[in-house]
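TICKET #2291
ISSUE: user wants both folds in one file
ATTACHMENT 1:
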Amino acid sequence: MKLAYEVILPPDGSADNSLSPIIFLHGRMNSRKTWNKFAPEIAKRTKREVYIYDARNHGDSPWSDEMDLDVLVHDLEELMNDFDIEKAILIGHSMGGKTALTFALKKPEAVEQLIVEDMDTKDYTKTAKDKQIGKLYLLKESLTAIPPNADESMARKAIMKFLQEKLNLGQERVKKNSIYNLDEIPIKKKGNSYVWQANMDVLEETFLKNKFDKKLSGVYNGKSLFLYGKNSFFDVENDEDINKFFPQAIKIGIEDCGLDYYFLFAYAYLKQSFLKETKMKLAYEVILPREGNQSLPPIIFLHGRLDSRKTWKKFAPEIARKTGREVYMYDARNHGESPWSDEMTFDAITDDLEEFMSDHDIEKAILIGHSLGGRTAMTFALRKPEAVEKLIVEDMDTKNYSSISRRTIQQIIVLLRHSLSSIPPKADEMTAKKAIVEFVKLKLAPAQIQLKERGIYDLDTIPIKKEGDSYVWQANLDVLEDMLMTDKVNQQLSGVYSGEALFLYGKESFFDVENDEDINKYFPLATKVGIEGAGHLIHQDFPNEFLQHITNFILK
C-alpha cells in the first residue's frame, strides 16, 4: 500500500536529526489535510520532521477492500520502514488514534511518545457505530447540496452550509469544528460532479461487520496522552483499561467538546499540555562521599518554589558523608541557573526529574523534596515507583493548594519583588543580600523573625544575581505566580508507592500534613514526623533536627 504523504520541516529546513520525527494519523472520513495548519507549527516548535499521510481508502491513497485495524497498523509499520524511521512520536485522532495505540502496544520500542485524540481502548459501542454510520450517510447526502457547475470553493461552502443546518449548530460551535474549514473538506471533482475522497462503502462495512473490534494486548510504558471531549460518545474518562495498557497515560478532558475534529488537539497543543519544545537542561551539582558504595542508589534533592539548589549546600556534603552515597541537587526549571519556560506544571517538572535521572544513568534514587520539590518527588514516586528507593517529603501534603496556601505564597512573591528596591546603588552581592534580609525582617511579624535560626537570613542561599546595574531574583516570578493562581498548581494524584516514605512537617505550617489521610492511601508505608515550632521551612529553621531525621531514615 503506497500511501500519499507529506513531510514538513521547520521553516529554516533544519530539523534536528537526532530527534525522532512526529507522525500524524487522521480519523475516519478525513485526510492528511486536516493536519495542514498544525504540522508546520509543530515542526517549527519542536525542531522535528513531521509526517502526515492519508490512510488507505482515504484522501489520495489507494482504495482497498481490505480494511481493518491490523492492516492499518501494518500500513503504519511499512511507512516507517520505507523512511527508515526507527522511532517516532505518534499523534492519532479517532481511527488514527486506535491505529496509533495498537501500534504502540505491538512495537513499543518504536514509539517515543503517544498522543491519542478522543479514542478509548474498547470495542465500538452500538451508540458509537450508529453515530458513525449516521455521519457517513449525512456526508453522502451533503453532496446533493452542491449546485450545478460549482467550482471547488463553492462546493465546499455548500457542504458546510448543509452540515450546519442538519446538525443545528450555532456559529460559535461551527468555528470549533474543522470540518467547516473549507480547505480540509476532503472532496474532489469526478466528471461533472463531486465525490468524497473516501471509500464510503468499505468504511460503512467496517462498522457493519465489526472490523475494528479487536482485543488489545501488551503494555506501552512510554509517555502517553489521551485527550478527549467530555461530550464525546467515546468514554475515555471512564476507560480503566487505558492505564492497564498505558501505565503512564495522562487523560485530559475538554469541557463542552464532543468528537470535535482536531479542535481538541489544537487546544492541548497551544496550551503546551504535552509536547515540549526542547529538552530542559537543568543546572546541577554532584557531591561525592569520601568513602562510599557506588552500588547504592544516589540521593536527589529537590528544592521548593522560589528557592534553588543552594538551599541544600550545607546538608548535601554531610548527608553524602554519613550515608556513603552520591548526592545530586539541581535547580528546577524557572529557578536558579536552570532555563526559564512558560510551561510550568507538575507534569513538566516531574518529566524534568525523569529526564535528569535518565541523562545521568540513574535507575533508582532516594528522593528528598521540599514544598514544590516534595510534590514533584511524590508525583514521580507514584508514576515510577520502581525508580524510587525511599521517599522523603518536607512539609507538603497531597491536597490541592488551599486559599490560605496560595495567598501566603503570593504574599512572599510580592515581598521578594519589593525587596529588590531596598538594595543601595552600586552594592556588591553581599551588601545586596544583607539589604534584602533587613527589608524582610521589617515586613515579617516579630514571632516569625524569632522562629528562624537561619532561614532566609542565610546570605549564601539567597538566589539573586546581578544583571546590568541592578539585582534580580533567580526565579521566573511571573510564571511561578501564574502557576500558583491557576489550576496548574493543582493536580490529582494517582497510583500507589509501596516503598518507605517519610513526611516531615512543621506543626506551625499552613500545609496540614498531620491531618492528610490520603498520604497513607498513596503511600501505605508513610511515617509522619511533626517538628514543634516549625513552619514551612524546616531545613532552614531547624537544620539539626532536619539532618538527624533525614539521615536516620536513610540509614535505617
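ATTACHMENT 2:
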Amino acid sequence: MSDHHGPAPFPLRGTWASGATPDPVTGLLGFPEFYACLPSFLEDRARHGQRVGIAIGDVDHLKSFVENTNATEPGSFGHLAGNALMSTLGRICSSWFHSTTFPFGCVSTFGGDEVIVAAVLNTTTEFATSIAALRDQCRRQLPRPVSFARTTIAPRLGTDWRPYAAETLSAVDKALFRRKAARCGTIDDLGFVVGLDEVVIQDVHPAA
C-alpha cells in the first residue's frame, strides 16, 4: 500500500452501521456512530452464537513526534504532523481490514490517536494473528509504532448491552495503558500487543 494514493475503502463490513460516514482525518468509522451501534451489533452476534474480537490501538509517543516535527520543520505547526500520521494510520487500517476474512466488523477512530477494531471471528485464533499483522504493518509504515490490546468475547443473550459494550471497551483500554505504563521506556519497548483472556471479560460483564 502506498501512502501517496487515494483513500482506502471504508473499513466497514455488514449493514450494522449502515449510513455511517468516514472520519475526515483517518477515513475510519467515526467513534460516535461506532459507539451508538456497538450494543445492537453485540446483541445480534449473540443471537447467532458468534464470537467478537475487540482491539484498541494507540500510537506510541505521538506527542513527542508532533513536538519534534514542529521544532524541526518550518511548515509544521499545531497537530498537523499528528493529523498526517493518523491519516496514514487510517489508510493502513482500512487496507488491512479489507485483507481480512471477518464476515462483519469495522475499524473506528477514537480521540486523537486511537483506533478500535470490532470483528466477528471465523476461528478462535485468527484475531490474535490479524492484530499482530496490523501492528507489524504500522511499525513498517509509520514514524511511530502503535501498541494494541485485544480480546475476544462471547456475547450472551440476556446481557444489558450498553453497559456491556462500554465496560468491555474500558477493560481493553485499561489493559493497553497498564502495559504502556509498565513499559515506560523508549520506543523500542512499545509497539506491543497485549491480550486479555475471554474469561476475564465475561467475569467483568455477567449476563443480566
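RESOLUTION: both attachments delivered.
EXTRA DETAIL ON ATTACHMENT 2: The helical segments are 31-47, 62-72, 80-99, 126-141, 161-182, 198-204.
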